[in-house]
Structure formats: C-alpha cells, structure tokens
Write a structure and sequence with these properties.
- The strands form three sheets. Strands 5, 6, 7, 8, 9, 10, 11, 12, 13, 14, 15 and 16 form a twelve-stranded mixed beta sheet that branches. A two-stranded antiparallel ribbon has the order 1-2. Strands 3-4 form a two-stranded antiparallel sheet.
- A hairpin with a 3-residue loop joins strand 12 (367-372) and strand 13 (376-386).
- The protein is an alpha/beta fold.
- It contains 16 helices and 16 strands.
- The chain folds into three domains: 15-109, no CATH class; 119-366, Aldolase class I (TIM Barrel); 373-459, no CATH class.
C-alpha cells in the first residue's frame, strides 16, 4: 500500500475542550456573550473539537449561522431558556466546579439521556448475566461499544449519545472484553452483522482496534458476514486514515478483514457537504475504499445545519463521486437538545424528496427520513390522501420483532409532529400494530382492501 504521509502534511491531533473556550473565543473573535454561552452549555452537554474542525471546516466569517459552527460549538438555544439563564448566571458568578456539575446534572436528567429503551430493552446476556457495553435490538445485528472508543475527535452538538460523554458513569455503554463479545456471537448464529460504535472506535490506536476485530476473524464466527464501524473521524479527523502514525497499519487491518471473506463497512457520519470538500477528507475515503472496505454515509436532518435539500443533494453527490454509498437520512432523536435541532416530519419528507430528485440512480440507495424509535426504524415513506383522509405513509424498515420488517402502516397527518410518539393512528385505529405484537403485522392489510382505488391520491 502506498503511504500518503509524504504527500500530505501530517498534523498531530490535539483536542480542545471546555478549558480551551477562552482561547478559542479570543483566537476567532467571539463575543463575551458567545463565550459565556459556550461555557454554560458545555457544562450540560459535551464539548470537544480539534484544530482541523476549527481551521478547515468552520467559516468564521459566517458565525453564528455557519452550519459547522452550529454543528460543533455549543449554542445558547440548546438549553431551555430558564436552564440557560441559570447556568449562565453560575458561570458569570464563577461558581465552583461542584456546584456547576450538580446543577448541570439536574438538567441532564430531564433530557432523556437514553432514548428508545437502550438501557432496559436491548441489553443481551451470556449465561443469564447482562453484558455491559453491548446492544442487541435487531435479530441480525449486534452493537458493541469498545471501552477505549468511547470518545470522539470532536462532538456533534446534536449527538443522541451525548450521555456517553458527560462524566456520568451509570449512563455509559462500554466493554473492554473481546472474548466476551466473541462468546456471545458464538451463541447467536442468527447474528449476521457486528457494529463497533461509540463514541468513535476510530479514536483507538490500530493496535487496540485490532484486538476487537481480529477476535471476529477467528474460526467459529463464519455466520458474522459483516463488520461495521460507526465513525465521524472521516469528517472530523480524516488524517486518521491518511497521515496519522498508524494510518497505513489501520488500512492493512481493513485489508485483512476483506481478505478474510467478511465485508467491512465504515459507517461515515457526514452531516454537511463541507466535510467532504477538503483534500484530506477526499483522500481518506479513497484510501478506505482502496483497502477493500465500503464507506456508507449517514446523518440526521438537523435544523441550523443541513435542513435544506441543496445541502443533502450536494452531500450525496460528493459521496457518489468518491465511490461512497449514501445510506440514511435520520430524524433527530428525542433526546438532549432536540427542541433546538428538530425538524417536523412533514418538512423532513419534503427535504428528502427534493434532494432525492437531484441524484442519479446510484444515489437512490439512500433511505429516509428514518426514526430510530423504540419499536424499530420507522421510515416516513410518503404523504398521501386515502378515503379523504390525509396521512403519513410509514414503513417499519427494521423492527424489534423481526416479523415487523417492511410492514407499511399509516398515521394521521400532523404538520407539527417531529417524532413517532407525536403521531396518531389513521382510519379510526386505536393504536399502532407494534403496541400489540399479537396483531402484527397483518393489522394494516384490510385497510387497503377497503379503499376504492380511485380514492387514492398522492400529494
């Protein structure tokens, strides 16, 4: 493999956290009020960035409206007005660290730190003992949170896993036992795919990462067909794949997975087209693909960041040009600063549809808008009128009950709804099928049989 380290500058990764806010503000000309806001919010929600994000992704001439500034820098509106005023006053009065942490914890507890039943419903067991740092929600897929990968090169302000990063031990997912992961997978031949997630596994050195991956390549796990790595490093620190000291070793690890017969996919979290406009970011994608891996791209639709169709169409077309695969547009989960970032489902569907029309067939691998809710991944598949009633057409892409997959169902149209819990069943139904497993998935079929064909119209 050809090394890229001689052709592209090799900067050293350096994280910036709350203690660097004053320096960042002075360096980039932020106001006193913006600085106070950054500090106040950073006590409640995580803040971490790096030199690459600050110097190459944020357009400081467009602050505060710049999308990458909104994506990576804490904003006053991310907290409820009363909570923000309270935390700001504590920062101004130079309250003690203990008091700031205590008051922040009260706010954090109200922000639904673990949505979709993660702590209760998805925890697997080996020999009757719950396994920390692992999730098994869907039959074919297991999520594993390696302990050394539970941070990121920079944090997204919208992150639905923000509770991993605020120093509250009982809110963390983490496991440092590759052998335990292997034992669980050995006992579950139905599992086809393993997802290493976090945080970001790409913050680990290649030596540490290989301990987890090599355990999956040993005999006995032939049923595990694919290994996925969820990462934002491709956007926030692409040097990890290009010029970091062990970048070439990392790509050799990717090659080893490919040669083993398993499929390796990097689930690249790209939130805005600018993240693919630097040379090092494009080089990272090319090197990953050259090493035999696939880059699949996903991100949520986020107000203030990418809530317009042009941003998404440019993003998908950038990905296609590099050989990456547009995969998912998600709906912002019901946790953390959701009120600041959420977009109504109806508008999300319009944005997705308009962007979808601007890509070729190769780009129409993308699915969305999709909600990762408690029962499963629910796609907003359309807005239509049936029997005179305007409805959302919804599809369960993947369900906690495997039999739910690909089930179509309907909800009353609500222009203000932003999440599945906001929706009401259509056509007089008292509840959605997944609230009563005994009736799923056949419940919706009679609805379509009872509707005359000429009463169906699409908006």
């Amino acid at each position: 493999m050809k090394s890229a380290q001689t052709t592209i500058d090799a900067p050293r990764f350096r994280p910036y956290t709350r203690k660097h806010i004053d320096a960042i503000a002075k360096r980039h000309g932020l106001t006193h009020e913006q600085t106070i806001a950054m500090k106040a919010v950073s006590w409640v929600l995580p803040f971490r960035t790096n030199e690459y994000v600050l110097e190459h992704l944020i357009d400081w001439g467009s602050v505060p409206d710049d999308p990458i500034f909104q994506l990576t820098i804490p904003q006053a509106g991310m907290l409820d007005a009363a909570d923000f005023a309270h935390m700001s006053n504590l920062v101004r009065s130079e309250a003690s660290t203990e008091e700031l942490k205590a008051e922040a914890r009260k706010i954090q507890d109200r922000l639904n730190p673990h949505p979709a039943g993660q702590m209760q419903l998805n925890v697997p067991q080996v020999n009757g003992i719950p396994i920390p740092g692992m999730q098994h929600k869907y039959r074919e897929t297991v999520l594993f949170f390696p302990t050394q990968g539970q941070t990121c090169h920079a944090y997204c302000t919208y992150c639905f896993r923000w509770a991993q990063f605020v120093g509250i031990e009982d809110l963390k997912f983490a496991n440092k036992e590759p052998a335990l992961l292997r034992e669980y997978l050995m006992q579950h031949p139905e599992v086809k795919s393993l997802l290493l997630t976090g945080g970001d596994p790409m913050v680990m050195s290649t030596k540490v990462l290989s301990r987890y991956i090599d355990a999956l390549l040993e005999p006995g796990l032939e049923h595990v067909q694919s290994i996925r790595i969820g990462t934002k490093a491709v956007a926030y620190w692409p040097q990890r794949f290009v010029t970091d000291p062990d970048a070439d070793e990392l790509l050799r690890l990717f090659e080893r997975v490919s040669k083993s017969g398993k499929h390796l996919a990097l689930m690249g979290h790209y939130s805005h087209p600018r993240e693919l406009e630097t040379e090092v970011a494009r080089t990272a994608v090319r090197r990953i693909i050259d090493a035999g891996a696939t880059v699949r791209c996903q991100a949520p639709l986020i107000r203030h960041v990418n809530d317009d169709a042009d941003a998404w169409s440019r993003l998908w077309n950038h990905q296609l040009r590099l050989g990456a695969v547009p995969y998912y547009m998600f709906i912002e989960r019901d946790t953390g600063p959701k009120h600041y970032f959420e977009v109504p489902l109806a508008r999300a569907y319009d944005i997705f549809s308009t962007a979808y029309q601007q890509v070729s067939g190769l780009g129409r691998t993308v699915r969305g808008p999709s909600m990762s809710a408690t029962p499963g991944k629910v796609l907003v598949d359309g807005v239509t009128t049936i029997g005179g009633q305007k409805v959302f057409v919804l599809k369960m892409i993947q369900g906690r009950n495997p039999e739910w997959a690909n089930t179509v169902f309907f909800a009353k149209f609500d222009p203000d709804a932003t999440w599945l819990d906001d929706l009401q069943p259509a056509f007089g139904e008292s509840s959605f099928f997944f609230h009563d497993e005994a009736r799923a998935p056949q419940r919706q079929l009679p609805i379509l049989r009872d509707i005359e064909p000429d009463s169906l119209s699409v908006n």
